[in-house]
Amino acid sequence: MTLELVTIPCLADNYAFLLHDGESRRTLLVDAPESWPIVAALEARGWTLTDVLLTHHHYDHVDGLDDLRQAFSLEVTGAAADAHRLPKLDRAVSGGETFDWSGHAVAVLDVPGHTLGHVAYYIADAGAVFTGDSLMALGCGRLFEGSAAQMWESLGRIAALPGDTRVCSGHEYTEANGAFALTVEPGNEALVARMAEVRALRAKGDATVPSLLALEKATNPFLRADLPQVKAALGMEGAQDAEVFAEIRRRKDDF
Ligand code: ZN
Ligand code: FE
């Protein structure tokens, strides 16, 4: 395999990701919460950072970029819609477009909801989607700027990717997300089994990210608002999918 994916814990509970192309020796970073763990991960592998993809403008995803710019010559990509509040971009992108990174196609998905300019990046050759604070393991980002309907549509865009896609999301919130998910679907066996694994991983201090998209579809309540059994569990039989999603998001905010 020529593409190597590395998950880097940053700050209190953030993740950044490195993708390294062994042929071209280019290395891509997704999000820059802080610089030192990223520099340490690069140095440990003898890699030079060449590219950065930003998912959204929040400080815990961009604040490490200035330091990295000083240490490396970087090509930085982010959402055109948020160019005014992101660090200076070398490539401004929009949903639906695809660009080349080191001979690999990077598809840009618009995923508004957490912020309006939030994007995700899908790299089929890496079998990975970088979702930031949109789709998370057993959860999704809070709705700071967008509506529930927008986030539901955004998650649908990600859910349409192949089931074996690794979901590289921005935070280690999985255990708390899962505790909430169990209140929505206590009888979901896949969820119960996953939570046992998540608790075991966290007890050892291990990451639960990346996860697999197929597993998210089977266990993440925010991807399951269209299912009759989920609507029934919430007493919302016959309600619109987006309304059910909004109710799940509301309950999570109060959980
Ligand atoms: Zn955020
Ligand atoms: Fe965040």
Structure commentary:
- The protein has one domain: Ribonuclease Z/Hydroxyacylglutathione hydrolase-like (Metallo-beta-lactamase, Chain A), CATH 3.60.15.
- Helices cover 33% and strands 24% of the residues.
- It has nine helices and 14 strands.
- The strands form three sheets. Strands 1-2-3-4-5-6 form a six-stranded mixed beta sheet, covered by helices on one side. Strands 7-8-9-10-13-14 form a six-stranded mixed beta sheet. Strands 11-12 form a two-stranded antiparallel ribbon.
- α4 packs across α9 and α5 runs antiparallel to α6.
- Bound molecules: zinc ion and fe (iii) ion (FE).
- The site of fe (iii) ion has 6 residues, from α2.
- The site of zinc ion has 4 residues, from loops.
List keywords for this structure.
Metallo-beta-lactamase, Chain A; 6-stranded mixed beta sheet; alpha/beta; binds fe (iii) ion; binds zinc ion; 255 residues; single chain
Question: Gist?
Answer:
The protein is an alpha/beta fold. Helices cover 33% and strands 24% of the residues. It has a six-stranded mixed β-sheet, covered by helices on one side.
